[in-house]
Amino acid sequence: MKKRQRRRNPANSEVILSPLIDCVFLLLIFFLVTSMIKRFERQIPVNLSDGTSSINIEANDDSFPIGVSRAGVMYGPDTANHYGVMGFKPLGDPDGFLRAVLAERGTEAPVTVNVEKGTHFQEVIKVQDRLEILGFKQVRFRIRDAALGNKSSDLRRNN
What span, in angstroms and rounded, lies between the C-alpha atoms of 110 and 135? Predict the structure, then answer.
């Protein structure tokens, strides 16, 4: 025996709106809460250079070089080699060295941090915080492919 199938009349079909309204209210609450949380996030201030600063024809690099190795060791400037590449030596007392540089050059003099390629980001941030706490206003970062110094003579993790 065949069962009779009832045909639905398309004119009588309806869309149930109560689940849709529930979804809309949940989305509304979600976006309100996330927008409130975003307001309280701390943002790092970044000073971006304008487009004309990269077009300088003459090199005007009066910045003081400092180095950071992969291990987080800070280096000070040493003599340049015969190719003109700046050499670095490990600092025994980085804070004392940086205070001396600050007293000699002032807070407005730029400092260039030469970061060894492959250095963890946290080590770079530690150096940036150290420079900011001491009072340096203009800090630049540069990635260096070559090693900063003789690895056997590194003073490990100078803090």
Answer: 11
